[in-house]
Design goal:
two-stranded antiparallel ribbon, 2 strands, 69% helix, globular, transmembrane, ZIP_Transporter, membrane
């Protein structure tokens, strides 16, 4: 229970830091850059708002795509997520994904097989190979790789066109929202009933998946982009970060029957995370893409 609470407090801190990064830094920068390219407010608002909404939709689209391509992995992934957020898993409780866990008869009664009964006497004769990967592992690693690529694009834009403090803040926000997610994904990959990988295999494949961050950052670093594209990419990344700072984190924070201590500590952790990011605003300057066109930034110095 103590470990469960610590995860929740870490999630609250990460949510505050991620959302503060989005609203204090990314969104203002993205809108100002779009205003440089499209001085007409209605056009700029439409461009900016569409980019934010698309960025918010992308993580959901990735999850839906994984559900279509790997339905078994999708069920296992969400079963693991619910066990992590509800704190209900016990070490002596077997975890099996979806339809494999129990049989429901026509009257709605569940019929679980005793642990000693095996469906197939020869099932234990051969060991299930970990290579090639099963649907659970593919679902986790592909989804994580696509998300990491998006993080790399956002970090690359921040470092290329903004001051170093902004770049490091965006990078830190990306790391924070990944901490709990990576731990749960590693557990999912190494669970014999789900991912079925060894610790070494899970670490190696997770590392390979994380390299997509570098790929996204390199593509942006060696590409010449104007203020309209900069603003759109920042807004897109901000929408994705906003989704990640709200949907998966707060689903886990809103547990049933919370104690007053839990509410107070979660609130303080959220405020602390947001405050630490807010300190970056002291002496903050706008990204370079807009500096060449000073009109849109007039009157917006911090």
């Amino acid at each position: 229970m103590i470990r469960f609470r610590l995860f929740k407090y870490m999630d609250a801190f990460a949510s505050g830091a991620v959302l503060a990064t989005v609203f204090f830094l990314i969104y203002p920068e993205s809108y100002l850059n779009i205003m440089v390219a499209y001085p007409k407010e209605s056009v700029a608002s439409a461009w900016w708002g569409s980019s934010v909404l698309l960025g918010f939709l992308i993580p959901a689209l990735i999850e839906w795509l994984m559900a279509v391509l790997f339905p078994e992995g999708y069920e296992a992934h969400h079963a693991a997520h619910n066990e992590h957020t509800d704190g209900a898993r016990r070490d002596d409780t077997p975890v099996v994904a979806g339809w494999k866990s129990k049989v429901i008869d026509s009257e709605g009664q569940t019929d679980s097989k005793p642990e000693g009964d095996a469906e197939d006497p020869s099932a234990g004769a051969t060991k299930k190979p970990c290579w090639p990967m099963n649907a659970v592992a593919w679902s986790v690693l592909l989804g994580d790789g696509m998300h990491n690529f998006g993080d790399g694009v956002l970090i690359g834009v921040a470092f290329k066109l903004c001051e170093p403090a902004t770049g490091w803040t965006v990078a830190a926000a990306s790391v924070l929202h990944e901490l709990a997610a990576e731990l749960s994904e590693f557990w999912l990959l190494t669970d014999k009933a789900k991912g079925g990988l060894t610790y070494f295999q899970a670490l190696l494949l997770n590392f390979i998946s994380s390299l997509s961050v570098i790929l996204g950052a390199l593509i942006i670093s060696f590409t010449e982009i104007g203020p309209a594209v900069v603003g759109a990419l920042l807004a897109l990344g901000g929408g994705t970060l906003m989704y990640l700072g709200i949907v998966p984190i707060w689903h886990g924070l809103l547990i049933e029957k919370p104690t007053m201590l839990y509410l107070v500590v979660c609130t303080l952790c959220f405020v602390l995370g947001a405050t630490l990011i807010g300190l970056v605003l002291i002496g903050h300057e706008h990204c370079e893409a807009g500096h060449a066109h000073g009109d849109a930034h007039a009157g917006h110095n911090h």
